[in-house]
Specification:
By secondary structure, the protein is α+β, with helices and mostly antiparallel strands. The protein has helices at residues 7-15, 24-37, 50-57, 61-73, 102-108, 174-181, 198-204, and strands spanning 77-80, 84-87, 92-95, 113-124, 134-144, 147-156, 186-195, 211-221, 224-234, 238-241. The chain folds into 2 domains: 7-87, Winged helix-like DNA-binding domain superfamily/Winged helix DNA-binding domain (Arc Repressor Mutant, subunit A), CATH 1.10.10.10; 92-241, Chorismate lyase-like (Chorismate lyase, 3-Layer(aba) Sandwich), CATH 3.40.1410.10. 27% of the residues lie in helices and 33% in strands. It has a 6-stranded antiparallel beta sheet with strand order 4-5-6-9-8-7. A two-stranded antiparallel ribbon has the order 1-2. A two-stranded parallel sheet has the order 3-10. Strand 1 (77-80) and strand 2 form a beta hairpin. Helix 1 (7-15) crosses helix 3. The longest helix is centred in the first third of the chain and has 14 residues, at 24-37. It is elongated. Keywords: DNA-binding, Transcription, Transcription regulation. InterPro entries: Bact_HTH_transcr_reg, Chorismate_lyase_/UTRA_dom_sf, His_ut_repres, Tscrpt_reg_HTH_GntR, UTRA, WH-like_DNA-bd_sf, WH_DNA-bd_sf. Pfam families: GntR (PF00392), UTRA (PF07702). This is Histidine utilization repressor.
């Protein structure tokens, strides 16, 4: 079926979405999920508008709005006020139990990785956490194609990576550089759901109300703490996965 569904297409799909005893908003949700699952409506495609659905299905706009709201809450679609409703971008999967290079992950999916450097500097260290007087501090935004997918806020031990500030992090990721100069022997991380700050949401191009997935990760090489990173991901574009044996 063409992605620009006609009124007749919508009426036919709605009739096939369940018996009349099923609430209309549930049938609309099933219709949309079915078309997305079948690959007929792809991530980024605009869905039929509420006025078109009202006209094609003979259902109240309130009912259609409820279906769209519930699909939005479930992360199936995204709504752009004044523009329309779109199939949500496919979520990016990140490994939970491994420390991988984000550029490699994105390229394995056949997408293009790029990085924007917000700042790269030296600053005073927290004596309770670091064995040095100063730390290197970088703030980077990683992109999957043109979508910001991770805000990387990283502190680095200058003694473990003295050349950190001299690196071009649009050409090499901090993960790749640190793996070369201070190979990882131990790591720890904490994962939590958070709301980003106004600055963080602006850098990730998301609304302040969108939940984020935060990974706080520290890594050691030999006996020295090398890096402490806050990796912030838009909740609508990310998920974590991992496996373990018992």
């Amino acid at each position: 079926m063409d992605r620009c569904a006609s009124d007749a297409d919508l009426a036919e799909l709605f009739a096939a979405a369940g018996p009349e005893s099923t609430p209309a908003y549930e049938r609309i949700k099933r219709l949309i999920r079915t078309q997305i699952g079948a690959g007929r409506w792809l991530p980024g495609d605009q869905l039929p508008s509420e006025p078109q659905m009202v006209r094609a299905l003979g259902i109240s706009r309130m009912t259609i709005n409820r279906a769209f709201r519930e699909l939005t809450a479930a992360g199936v679609v995204v709504r752009n006020m004044g523009v329309g409703t779109f199939v949500a971008p496919a979520k990016v999967t990140s490994p939970l139990f491994e420390v991988r290079n984000i550029a490699d992950e994105i390229q394995r999916r056949g997408h293009r990785h790029r990085t924007e450097v917000v700042f790269l500097r030296s600053e005073s260290a927290d004596a309770a956490q670091w064995p040095t007087d100063r730390v290197f501090h970088s703030l980077l935004v990683h992109f999957d194609d043109e979508s910001p997918i991770q805000l990387e806020d990283r502190l680095v031990n200058p003694e473990a990576a003295p050349g950190y500030l001299d690196q071009d992090f649009t050409a090499i990721t901090p993960n790749r550089y640190l793996s070369e100069v201070a190979p990882l022997v131990r790591g720890e991380h904490v994962v939590e759901a958070v709301q980003g700050s106004a600055e963080e949401c602006a850098l990730l191009r998301i609304r302040r109300t969108e939940p984020c997935l935060l990974i706080c990760r520290r890594t050691w090489s030999a006996a020295a703490l090398v890096s402490s990173a806050r990796l912030l991901h838009p909740g609508s574009r990310s998920r974590l996965e991992g496996a373990f044996e018992v």
